[in-house]
Amino acid sequence: MFAQRNIIIVIVSVAFILLSRLFFLQVIDESYKITATNNAFRYDVEYPARGIIYDRNGNILVENITTYDIMITPRELRDVDTAGLCTVFQLSPEEVRHIFKGMGKNRDYRAFTFLKQVTPERYALFRERADRFHGFYSVVRTMRRYPRNIGGNVLGYIQEVDTSVINRNPYYRPGDYIGVSGIEESYEKALRGKKGISVYLRDSRNRIVEPFENGRLDTAAVPGKNLVSSIDGDLQEYAQTLMQNKLGSIVAIEPSTGEILALVSSPAFDPAVLSGPNRQHNYAGLALNPTKPLFNRAIMSPQPPGSTFKLVNGLIGLEEGTLTPATTCHCAGHYPYGRGVACHGHISPVNFKQSIMVSCNAYYCYAFRNILENKKYSSVSLALTAWREKIIRFGFARQLGIDLPNEKAGIVASASLYDRYYGANKWNPLSIISLSIGQGEIGATTLQLANMAAIIANRGFYYIPHIVKSMGDNERIAPQYYEKQYAGIDEKHFEHTVEGMHMATTGAGGTAWRAQIPGIDVCGKTGTSQNPHGKNHSVFVCFAPKQNPKIAVAVLVENSGAGGSYAAPVASLVLEKYLKGGILRTDMEQWILNTNLLSSQ
To answer: What is the pLDDT of residues 468-491, one digit of tens each?
Structure first.
């Protein structure tokens, strides 16, 4: 009896809830009533202007121009002037018929898009002849405009949403646009604003007569927030020019803030080609280009860092106490143990600072082996694990967290990987000695290398690299970009490293002599990234000035040889442009500008 009474109570309760909901939808909730009787109303969406993107100096990088979507209300069509449509919109009769065919049997009051992103000039012609086009109306839209051909992979682009986006996010409707790359994607919610809507009442002849309820249910569009990026537009443009006819990437960071001053992936692309009615055709061309201009090499292409990685191994050795600034090494042109590691000719013996200056491979083979054979660890496996943890604190083998999509983490091999490859306890420091010079099972992005340079410039800490400074009315970005991140190395060890990097550009036999800039103390380190698919990659990291650094740079030029060959001069020109506002070493500049490395690949 008790159970039966409970069942009756449940049934009555459910019925009451359903009846109450039905009453609310049909009597109280006018928004449902309006939707259910759609033929009596017309809904005009007001699309907000997308936020403008500025560079750090207030120059516009991305803005909007007004365009118009021409819409059709199928039920209102009559006596369509096909010839007039062809004239106004420069269409062929076949194209007009194809558009109408796409409408199918839709003959109600739901809007159908006839043409998208019509220019103001074409729209003016359309308005002049509006009386010939019954059932047609327009919706004001905006299209992205780029005053300068820079930063395609940084700024990104927008495209029309597809069904997968609509299914995931109820904000979007067919015909809406969304950021799908770069800043446009990362800051989509801020940039897009909020759509408005106006509801109009139709009369018995289906004519629009007045706003429904005097506009009580209308909402105004809210423009998107403007963004101030950290990019220096002039520096970005110059760095991009230096990389013409070359594969590779450049990242320049302001060490004191983590703000990215320039981020170049080459070959680059003009962001303007991915805006407007030809976007789809142009995108296909870029996607099929074998040099992959849509691929952001700066954050998505981990490569062996080569000898630039010696800086980190040296700092870890100093921190662990297995290396001192006075530690010397005699180099006979190679490291003589295990498989051996070749070295180039240079002064010998060398101490710590000199080892950076001449980039001695043997020195860092000894240093790395001492780290892994440190007696405070009971096994080489545990020593490697501790070493790897310090590498990760430098920003390697993980995403740094830049505010751009698709950042890759790179790789630094773990002890477990070597256990699987060699067998547990069947490998030793000589098995993995290539890690000492940034080769082997290791890969870093150009962003990570620039961040490493910023850490050394700051003597032990960094701010997470980011591409946007502020939003809207000077609104701050995410709090993590203002927090110091420490590399876990005592500050005192960095001065020896900095001095070695300075000697690399100024000392006799320094591998980075091409990076010298008159009047500026440049600290740098060359690297050669071995490439199993062809010629080695040229790598260089640097910062300047030596004291109170203003800029840290990493450059990777693919298939171009040693680090001092192309990456070092490119990086030094970027430094000079930023710190001096112009270039005095015009001979070097012209040599880089005239070099075409794509023709030999």
So the answer is: 999 998 889 999 999 999 999 999
Sole residue written with tokens 């780029």: 146
The H or E element containing residue 266 is strand 259-266
Distance CA 322, CA 447 (A): 29
Cα→Cα distances 470→196, 232, 233, 323, 479, Å: 25, 14, 16, 43, 12
Cβ(201)–Cβ(210) under 8 Å? Answer: yes
Helix segments in 321-360, DSSP class H: 352-358
**How do 227-229 and 484-486 pair as beta strands?**
unpaired
- The amino acid that residue 317 corresponds to is G
Q: What is the pLDDT of residues 514-545, one digit of tens each?
A: 999 999 999 999 999 888 777 899 999 999 99
Alpha carbons 50 and 420: distance in angstroms, whole number = 52
Q: Tokens for 157, please give them.
A: 């682009």
What integer pLDDT is reported at residue 131 of this predicted model?
Answer: 81
User: CB–CB of 263/466 below 8 Å?
Assistant: no
CA distance 475 to 471: 5
Domains and CATH numbers, the chain: 41-76+97-219 (3.90.1310.10), 238-277+296-594 (3.40.710.10)
Residue 80: Cβ within 10 Å count: 16
Annotate 511-550 with three-state secondary structure: CCHHHCECCECCEEEEEEECCCCCCCEEEEEEEECCCCCC
Give the number of C-alpha atoms closer than 13 A to the C-alpha of residue 83, restricted to the C-beta side: 0
Q: In 3-state terms, the chain is what percent helix, strand and coil (to 5)?
A: 40, 20, 40
**Separation of alpha carbons 555 and 537, rounded Å:** 10
Token pair belonging to 277: 């009615």
Classify residue 219 by its DSSP letter. Answer: B
Q: What is the pLDDT of residue 51?
A: 97
- Residues 6+ away with beta carbon under 8 Å from 278: none
How far is 156 from 268, CA to CA, in rounded Å? Answer: 12
User: 248 pairs with which residues across the strands?
Assistant: 266, 557
> Would you list the DSSP string of 146-215?
-SSS--HHHH--EEE--HHHHHH-TT--TT-EEE-SHHHHHTHHHHH-B-EEEEEEE-TTS-EEEEGGGG
Q: What is the pTM of this model?
A: 0.89
pLDDT band at 84 (very low <50, low <70, confident <90, very high): confident
d(C-alpha 227, C-alpha 54), whole Å? 6
